[in-house]
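User: My instructor asked us to take a sequence, write out its structure as tokens, and then describe one feature of it. I'm not sure where to start. Here is the sequence I was given:
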Amino acid sequence: MNRLPRLIADYLCLWRDIIRFPRQVLLNRSHSIASLAAIGGVCAVDLSITHPVTTAVTFIVLAVFGPSALVSVAGSVAHALWDRGLIWADIACEWCGDDPDDDGPDDGLGPDDPDDPHGLIRDITDYLSEQRTLTLTR
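Assistant: Let's start with the prediction itself. The structure tokens for your sequence are:
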């Protein structure tokens, strides 16, 4: 999927992830209304311009974006129920709540201090120093 346009890759990832993580996808999808906006815009143009081409384009847009729009509507209903505490109390909405990895103010984007006992560079250095090289003799 690295070579696909972003819109197509996101669309394919939606359908891959809804099978894996349906609750999380529904909560997050409630914040995305692009498919509903696209359908509404095309339908408005089709109503104002009655032409066979606009009707054909409307059918194509409904076929492509319709399922995604239904997931957005179902996500909005699920999000409203989740927000009231009626369902899924064990998960958090990535858009509404704090970032799960957010433990306070950002420390900055600087590199790890090599003297820090918990830094990535320290972990890599410790791992490499523990490795032994095996040599075979014949």
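For the description part of your assignment, you could build on this observation: The two ends are 47 Å apart (CA to CA). Try explaining in your own words what that tells you about the chain.
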